[in-house]
Amino acid sequence: MPRWGMVVDLTKCTACQACVVACQTENNVPCVEPEQAALGRIISWLKVLPEIKGAYPRISMQLMPLPCLHCDSPPCIRVCPVGATGITPEGVVRQIFARCIGCRYCTNACPYTRRMFNWYKPNFPGELQQALNPDVTVRPKGVVEKCTLCHHRLMQAKERARAEGRALAEGDYVPACVEICPANAMYFGDLDDPDSKVAGLARSPRAFRYLEDLGTEPKVIYLTEGEWAGGKEKPRQP
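and the corresponding structure tokens:
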């Protein structure tokens, strides 16, 4: 059984935000109007987060793509009263939109603020209706939504592999953000496969997990160099 994870090389990321656009388009994420944005009601499954690197007077800014980190010990799951969110055997933190009652306990529990509440009925006017991905549902008003690592792509990859009479191979399943990255700064694969590219990068001395001291054990791992936010990164096993 694979354990899907992602590695992002921050030294290669150019913050072009192609991954953000790909995620928005692939998963039918609605764009909010200026009035809703002013109220903090932006919906974005993936954001590029600015972080300060170093200390005065040697200060620089590091930009890091931040999706749902699909933690091995996710606090969001423990607080959901209806079981709308959970973790699959393959390590993907799922979200069952039809079961969500919009209490937003999970939103408050997520230390990475990677869960968003749908405050209004999504509106895709005119020709935008034709651009919707038919493999992904359009979430209704009043539910929490988040990154699912393009779980529909995993289902399609499994069906293709089953039809061809073979096992799922590395590269069959890749989320939209990883596929679109022009700098090849994002890697995706099985963290439990010692021969996979992503597992090798996760064992790098440059690897760190964002806010790892919280004990959430994220499966999105970052690569950097030198000091990070005042402290040196520590090698971690995937």
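(Above: one complete record from the training split.) The first helix runs from residue 18 to 26.
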